[in-house]
Amino acid sequence: MSNRTSGMPLPTTPTTATPYTLSRSNHTTARAAQATTSNGTSVFNTNGNYIRVAGNFTNNNGSTTFANVGTTGTLEFNGTAAQTYSQGASVLTLNNVLMNHTGTGVTLLTNMVSGTSGVVTLTNGRIITAANEVHVTNTATGACTNGNTNSFVAGNLRRSLSGAAAAYNFP
Question: Cα–Cα distances in Å, from 73 out to 18, 20, 97, 134?
Answer without folding.
Answer: 24, 20, 9, 18
